[in-house]
Amino acid sequence: MVAGGGRRVACAGVKRGPETGPSPVDRARVGSKHHVITDGTGIPLAATLTGGNRHDVTQLMPLIHAIPPVRGRPGPPRRRPRRIYADRAYDHDKYRRLVRAEGITPVIARRGEHHGSGLGVHRWVVEGAFALLHWFRRLRIRWEVRDDLHKGFLTLGCAIICWRRLKAHSLC
């Protein structure tokens, strides 16, 4: 018997882990967010997982630091991209300064301004990557209780997308 009586489990929310949190849009149900940074063609370079109630801007610098070196051209590999395109969720002066300190030009839509910033031309690439990731049912609906398992499936989904893109390009 549990001290609470009935069929209740003491501290039932503890087993969900730190990468979950109440969703601000789904009646405070426990959920998580995927954060993905892609290259210009939509290939995922890095992905992270946070709780549903975390701000997007907090994951900007960890995603930038997780980008692998760019290879394929003569000379030393580039460690960072030249520009970062992001939507209004990443608009914060502190993070703009941090991105500039990394040697990257931030192209981020400003909050409070009218739509039509022109970033939709670049933003659809990231939305396409999210659509490809969420074709995997394990990522669209989170069934795993443990965070490390869901992060593993997220990494596996990114790897499968990269492999499929490379396979399609090698057939041409």
From TrEMBL:
Pfam families assigned: DDE_Tnp_1
Region feature (Disordered): 1-28
InterPro entries, per database record: Transposase_11
Domain spans labelled Transposase IS4-like: 25-160
Protein name: IS5 family transposase
Species this protein is from: Amycolatopsis azurea DSM 43854
